[in-house]
Design a protein that fits this description.
By secondary structure, this protein is mainly alpha-helical. Helices cover about 75% and strands about 0% of the residues. The two termini are about 15 Å apart.
Length: about 120
């Protein structure tokens, strides 16, 4: 059994009115009453979903800020030299945003260790 403190997350996993069960019911074609926080085989997917739901907006904003600060002249020079999108991303954009990505990964990793207490 997992303890869900966040009211929004608690309502997501409600077996009667929760949107997760509603979406699964639409896809499946029949009513699905998955007991996410009680069934041992569904607890880990519920925890993973909660973590993704909670941290995706924060990580998105950090990486969006990093992407907006990439030097446009370097990407334009790579485009003029004939580099494909993937090569430009790998050799120009990724090294430019790597320090910010490292900090974001560090923050997320520290939070993952905090879960185990």
């Amino acid at each position: 059994i997992i303890a869900v403190n966040d009211a929004q997350t608690k309502h997501l996993f409600d077996n009667r009115y929760g949107p997760i069960n509603q979406i699964i019911s639409w896809v499946y074609g029949a009513r699905v009453d998955a007991l996410w926080t009680i069934n041992p085989s569904l607890v880990y997917p519920a925890i993973i979903f909660c973590e993704i739901w909670q941290w995706t907006p924060f990580m998105f904003l950090i990486l969006l800020a990093a992407l907006s600060n990439v030097d446009k002249s370097q990407t334009e020079a790579a485009e003029i030299d004939g580099a494909s999108f993937l090569r430009t991303f790998r050799y120009v954009v990724l090294p430019a945003i790597w320090p910010v990505m490292a900090i974001a990964i560090l923050i997320r990793g520290l939070d993952l260790f905090r879960i185990f207490d």
